[in-house]
From TrEMBL:
Alphabetized InterPro entries for the sequence: FAD/NAD-bd_sf
Protein name listed in UniProt: LYCOPENE BETA/EPSILON CYCLASE PROTEIN
Pfam families documented for this protein: Lycopene_cycl
Upper taxonomic lineage: Eukaryota, Viridiplantae, Streptophyta, Embryophyta, Tracheophyta
Entry coiled-coil feature ranges: none
Taxonomy, superkingdom: Eukaryota
PANTHER family referenced in this protein's UniProt entry, alphabetically: LYCOPENE BETA/EPSILON CYCLASE PROTEIN (PTHR32098), LYCOPENE BETA_EPSILON CYCLASE PROTEIN (PTHR32098:SF5)
Amino acid sequence: MMMVQLGQCNGILGQYPKLSPLVRRRKERIQRSMSLQAQALPSRTQRIMESIAVEGEVGGAGGAYSYNALKRLDHIWSSICSTVTVSQEPQQVVSSIPGVTSHSDLTGKEVDKFDVVVCGGTLGIFIATALSAKGLQVGIVERNVLKGREQEWNISRKELLELVDVGILEENDIEQTIAMNFNPNRCGFEDKGEIWVKDILNLGVSPVKLVEIMKKRFISLGGVIFEGCSVSSISIYEDASVLKLSEGNILSSRLVIDAMGNFSPVVKQIRRGRKPDGVCLVVGSCARGFKDNSTSDIIYSSSSVKKVGDSEAQYFWEAFPAGSGPLDRTTYMFTYVSPQPGSPKLEELLEDFWDLMPEYQGVSLDNLEILRVIYGIFPTYRDSPLPAAFDRILQFGDASGIQSPVSFGGFGSLTRHLGRLSAGVYEAINGDFLDASSLSLLNPYMPNLSASWLFQRAMSAKKNSNVPPEFINELLHVNFQSMQKLGDPVLRPFLQDVIQFGALSKTLGLVMLTKPQIIPSIFKQVGIPVLLDWSSHFFMLGYYTFLSTYADPVIRSLLTAFPSKMKYEWKRYLEAWKYGSGLDYKL
């Protein structure tokens, strides 16, 4: 009845411009009432998420699945977007105190002493176990129960076997953790052609099983876990770091490893609340009801740039079979954005996801049982990896920014760098090289990581960029087509987030030869300042390649004659050249 009356009022408005005050007030009340009713209606995302039974949250990216957790993360994302460029002073978690602990107010208090304390256990358990296996006393502080998330991690067998090389897993442990194996794997961009590869990100690994195996191994090596505890402060003395936990425990450690992820309070303090330079927003689902479910998509785009709220976005897809059942499939939709007012919220992306995913996957949403809704924010900074800002504290994993800016998961980069980092930390502990300068050598400048910034910028949609909406897909298609022509030594490292000078030079050269008309649009899309900055990193990538190839063998033969501190430093330089040029990657 209300709708009929409103329609009649609208009809009257069209015929009689002047309304009596009584009719006008009545119309305004009806409009306000309808507006409030519309606001009160739950979104499709809310209805779907609240219909799913959700277990307790676990630590790490993607460890929460509830609608309330989504709203909390969207609130964090909105605050990042609205933050002014002026640096803000976040909570001061770390403080430096002159003197030694024996002359502090800790005398007479119960203090648990360790060689290393790792804050953040989901990914921190890996380096904690590696250091425990070397004979160090290691503790882990984890604010939740130390447990892997239900959603699987995507990885290649080659990367997974690096955990065996480090010595923290056996090969039969690896087999126990693999929930799913799928081939072939597709890359494609808006019907411009497809590239199929094998054995790239083709394993679904169960974090629940993997973290549980690591946890048992860590405890068997004498490790101690403080579950349900969070760090309230870290005091740096001349001889130790002292951690006070919110639950009252006091821990003393020669070194603190910050593995608290992208939103680590220590990293916030170091970066002084600065906005990320770029962000990867990810939403998705694990759903049951996919009959054709044997292959995966590494990266796929089914449309051009589209408008989302007040901004524009280029959506990409990743999809793969899930280990929970033969009809179960995980689908991610992700996009790269610059954090600014008007940037799309995760819930807005999820609303698009429900519209676009059925067409992309060739299914009807009504025929799917949604098992989990997935979402995440992955901020990245151009000055990554993050050097140590304090004595006796080192960032690790996502907190260090060691992952590629085009990746939205740090597990692959963790496996790649774990051997290097665990060996370096062990040497730093043994030699007492725990000042900020020495620790920074473990998170050095890596030109291949910095060069990846151009790719994120090129894949980010911009308002008023003066390039066609299909440009990003066209650019990616041309690059992937060129890499395919150049073969596995070029394509496979890139798909595993490893940039190498030779491969990149060949790809860029072939793109310019086969599609020179695309070059002006690249300048418009990324901007000349970004290209100039990238050029310096490209030069350094070539320089690091030269040093690792020709200077490394000469210097390595002299290492045994160096004093211990000098030997430690030069080993880190050699590692920086090797990993910073991507020459650690072997087919």
